[in-house]
Amino acid sequence: MNRWLALIIAIIGGAFLGYAMLLAVGGAVLGFLWIYVFGDDSWPKWSDYAIGAAIVGGGLAAWAFFSWKIWLYLRPRTEP
């Protein structure tokens, strides 16, 4: 497979998988916080910034992780 094509597939595929992971894990964490920690009361102001930073950081980390795994799968293998 062409190296550049493999790179594009890894980046786009990693983005899709990272977004799916972000939705699943982020939704579960926010649901847990809503049910067990903060409830229906108004959430503290710091939680908006902390949750936003965690979502952005976690999404980027998931994107990088899945892109790297796809790249390792698609890269050309050389036999010793």
Overview of this protein structure:
The chain has one domain (3-74). It has 80 residues and is mainly α. The chain has helices spanning 3-38, 45-74. It is built from two helices and no strands. 82% of the residues lie in helices and 0% in strands.
Order of helices and strands: HH
Oligomer classification? single chain
Tell me the distance between the termini: 20 Å
Backbone CA Rg: 18 Å
The number of distinct structural domains comes to 1
Structural class: mainly alpha
**What characterizes the major β-sheet?**
none
Overall mean confidence score, pLDDT:
92
- With helices defined by DSSP (H or I, 4 residues minimum), what is the helix count? 2
DSSP strand count: 0
Morphology call: rod-shaped
Regions with pLDDT < 50 over 5+ consecutive residues?
none
Residue share in β-strands: under 5%
What is the helix fraction of residues, given as a range? over 70%
What structural keywords apply?
mainly alpha; single chain; 0% strand; 80 residues
List the helices and strands and how they pair.
Elements (H helix, E strand, L loop, with lengths): L2 H36 L6 H30 L6
Helix pairs in contact: 1-2
Summarize the structure.
With 80 residues, the protein is mainly α. 82% of the residues lie in helices and 0% in strands.
